[in-house]
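EI: anyone free to look at a 83-residue chain?
SC: sure, send it
EI:
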Amino acid sequence: MEYKVLIKLYVPEIEESYEMYIPINKYIGEISELLCKLVNDLSKVYPIKKNACLCNRYSGIIYDKNNTIRQTDIRNGTELVLF
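SC: here you go
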């Protein structure tokens, strides 16, 4: 698992949180779309959004969709918000 990081994802619209591994070589935009689909499949309530953003839960940093996970401060244990 050296090419993945364990994150905690919080989705405020449905008040749920999930722990998952995400690959560090993918772009934030790709990861956001995949996370939307995953949350939709798990919750059956969350709508799939094409413009979803990832934000650091504690620092408030909104991540640029053109950066890879490796280029950000996202590491094991980072808590993110999907909105």
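EI: DSSP finds one helix and four strands in the chain.
SC: 👍
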